[in-house]
């Protein structure tokens, strides 16, 4: 089942490689969990007017995908400027209380 999901994700990402595969990064939060970081990134950037979501089916320009089992967040952006914006917000959010 897990392998089938991974293959499906690869197929979906492969189909959209032109927009999602060009600019990506892996975030490894130290102070908040991956799911919380992803949710807060989506909230903050959505409030700024960016098209951002957590799955391909949303039609979002930028995808923020939490991988909770590895405590990391994968980010796929259409351009380097947007990717840098996500990284900067992640640094701001992932701080000790």
Tell me what the structure shows.
With about 100 residues, the chain is of the alpha+beta class. The protein is about 45% helix and about 20% strand. The protein is built from four helices and four strands, in the order H-H-E-H-E-E-E-H. The protein has a four-stranded mixed β-sheet, covered by helices on one side. Strand 3 (about 60-65) and strand 4 form a beta hairpin. The radius of gyration is 13 Å and the shape is globular. It starts with a helix and ends with a helix.
Low-confidence stretches: 11-19
Distance between the termini: 38 Å
- How would you characterize the largest beta sheet? 4 strands, mixed
How does the helix and strand content classify structurally? alpha+beta
Total count of helical runs of at least 4 residues = 4
Topology:
Elements: H1 2-15, H2 17-20, E1 23-27, H3 34-47, E2 52-53, E3 62-67, E4 72-77, H4 80-93
Helix pairs in contact: 3-4
Give a quick set of tags describing it.
alpha+beta; 97 residues; 4 strands
What's this, in brief?
By secondary structure, the chain is an alpha+beta fold.
């Amino acid at each position: 089942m897990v392998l089938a999901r991974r293959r499906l994700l690869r197929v979906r990402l492969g189909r959209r490689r032109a927009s999602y595969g060009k600019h990506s990064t892996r975030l490894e939060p130290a102070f908040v969990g991956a799911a919380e970081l992803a949710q807060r990134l989506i909230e903050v950037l959505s409030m700024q007017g960016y098209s951002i979501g957590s799955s391909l089916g949303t039609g979002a320009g930028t995808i923020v995908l939490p991988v909770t089992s590895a405590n990391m967040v994968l980010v796929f952006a259409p351009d380097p400027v947007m990717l840098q914006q996500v990284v900067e917000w992640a640094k701001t959010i992932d701080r000790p209380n």
